[in-house]
Amino acid sequence: MRWERVDRAEVPGGGVMDLFHDGRAFAIHVDGRRLMASDEYGSERALAELGCAPIADRAEARVLIGGLGMGFTLSEALARVGPEASVTVAELMPDVVRWNRGPLGEAAGRPLIDPRANVYAGDVADLVRRPPAPWDAILLDVDNGPTGLTRSTNEWLYGWEGLAAAHAALSAGGVLGVWSAWPDSGFARRLARAGFAVDEVEVRSRGKQGGQRHVVWIGTRGHAVRGG
Asked: Fewest CB atoms less than 10 Å from the CB: which of 46, 122, 141, 214?
């Protein structure tokens, strides 16, 4: 079926983001390049599944998600935490939130209507630097991975200072989950130097049906930060 553009939005700092639909699935493109599609969400769900598993027994778990996307990470996080938990998703682009409140939201089961879901209209780095209270899990999918760096704030987030800030923003035993389109051994070492116990997991874009290979790092907060 033919892809048709549903809407267009300006990206902060330059560029355009387009929402397409072909009658079956949605796709989001940035400057003509496909960023994500609603029929390939296995690795986004895996980020939440892996990141929330260690804190699932915390009755009032507080989860922060960087990047709303098509809502699949948010949807899975809500499914993995309890009724008294809260999940905050930070999204820079109001249009992405609007799309998720509109027809796009159907793809992930409209997670934004869940009363446990909160939207922060801004950069996830703000809530890492200055958490209103310790987070039990921080799940980041704000770029193609730690080497994507499409924004200068992402460079901070995935660098030594950002990882140290994430470590400090987490509760004892809290989890930092990071999605990436490809492996990065240097990033895994930075996580370890920042005091995280690191697990690197290969995940697939279509889940059990296969698809592209992606990576999720799960860093569990330790006690000692060894320096950058």
From this structure: 122
**39-221 is classed CATH 3.30.360.10:** no
pTM of the model: 0.93
Please report, for residues 11, 41, 44, 137, 205, the alpha-carbon distance to residue 23 in angstroms, rounded to integers and kept in the order given.
25, 18, 22, 35, 21
The whole-angstrom separation of Cα 190 and Cα 167 is 12
Q: What is residue 153's predicted lDDT score, i.e. its pLDDT? A: 61
In the chain, domain spans: 39-221
Give the distance, in angstroms, between the CA of residue 47 and the centroid of all CA atoms in the same chain: 7
In 138-171, which positions are buried (b, 16+ CB within 10 angstroms) versus exposed (e)? Answer: bbbbbbbbbbebebebbbbbbbeebbbbbbebbb
Q: Cα separation of 140 and 217, whole Å? A: 10
Interatomic CA distance for residues 101 and 111, integer angstroms = 9
